[in-house]
Design goal:
Number of strands: 10
CATH class of the largest domain: Alpha Beta
CATH topology of the largest domain: Double Stranded RNA Binding Domain
Number of helices: 11
Distance between the termini: 108 Å
Structural class: alpha+beta
Radius of gyration: 42 Å
Strand content: 15-25%
Helix content: 25-40%
């Protein structure tokens, strides 16, 4: 490595940010500030993970990349990264839910808080496996071991009576989750109950998600079918004829002109649809239908009124 190359890399290293993560371990930002390279500087040995260093060190044992130079020349420009021990563990509010005025913490939030404080390991020991003889009772003991060697233990139980229908096939896992949650509560000093300790999790979830969803998913029950007359089954033509008459009266009340002569109101939409359906069943096309109406009433079909529509419906029902 020549003096000129060293001077050039020294210049480039001046603006690089250096973060110390541990003694003799650093992160150095790239020139663009998009990524960081790890630099190890221990007992005179300096190693960097950048491509420049890995490609040149084999040919030049004394090679120093700009990231290493940023560490060497850092002086007072090296930032101390906040370590896990100095950062205050906090429970994310997203994992707190409220049910009937009481607050509960969810299991993922407890686990996240535990890892913030530092968890070395979590041990689970099943004490009772669910069998018919013990009433399908599952009991587990969980122990949380912190990084400083402290232990926090508790037990969790699960049976068909204190679990929802969705988890009754997984009683041992439910007991394990509850045991871990209780041990984590002791470790993290969280006094509120864990949501997974509740008896009916799926029921509480439905209630917590809002009753509007239940209303949305509830479908109205269909009306019971009307009894048919004893004289025989009602034909499609009879149904078609009855429906527009009933609907037509309601429609006529809305569309009738108070100054128009009686019987001269316009036909309802239900009557028009009934005529179209009957014509379709009889195989009449548009021109044939207009001719039938003109021959019967001696007027254009466009001038049909509600009384004529009733008569025309009966006429089409009786047509061959």
């Amino acid at each position: 490595m020549t003096v000129a190359e060293l001077s050039q890399r020294n210049t480039k290293s001046n603006d690089l940010k250096v973060f110390q993560i541990q003694p003799n371990q650093y992160f150095v930002e790239s020139s663009e500030g998009k990524i960081c390279y790890r630099v190890l500087a221990n007992n005179g040995s300096k190693v960097c993970t950048c491509g420049d260093y890995t490609s040149r060190i084999g040919k030049d044992p004394n090679f120093l990349c700009k990231h290493i130079l940023a560490v060497v020349n850092g002086n007072g420009n090296i930032h101390q990264m906040e370590s896990q021990q100095t950062r205050k563990p906090t429970l994310d509010g997203r994992w707190i839910i409220e049910i009937e005025g009481r607050e509960f913490v969810k299991y993922p939030g407890l686990l996240d808080l535990g890892h913030q404080k530092g968890i070395a390991k979590i041990l689970v020991d099943p004490l009772y496996c669910p069998t018919k003889e013990n009433g399908m009772m599952a009991i587990c003991k969980a122990t949380v071991v912190s990084l400083d060697g402290k232990t926090f233990s508790d037990i969790g139980d699960a049976n068909p009576e204190n679990c929802s229908s969705k988890v009754r096939k997984h009683l041992l896992r439910m007991a394990s989750t509850r045991a871990i949650a209780r041990a984590l509560r002791s470790y993290t000093n969280i006094g509120i109950t864990c949501f997974e300790e509740l008896a009916g999790i799926d029921d509480e979830l439905d209630n917590d998600s809002g009753r509007s969803r239940d209303k949305r998913e509830t479908k109205p029950k269909p009306a019971p079918p009307k009894e048919q007359p004893k004289g025989g089954a009602i034909t499609d033509d009879q149904k078609t004829a009855k429906e527009p008459e009933t609907s037509g009266k309601k429609a006529d009340q809305k569309t009738s002109d108070p100054q128009a002569p009686q019987g001269q109101t316009k036909p309802s939409q239900a009557q028009i649809k009934a005529i179209e359906k009957l014509a379709e069943r009889r195989g009449f096309n548009g021109e044939h239908l207009l001719k039938i109406f003109t021959d019967k009433f001696n007027k254009p079909y466009e001038d049909i009124n509600s009384e004529e529509a009733k008569d025309f419906i009966k006429h089409l029902q009786q047509a061959a």
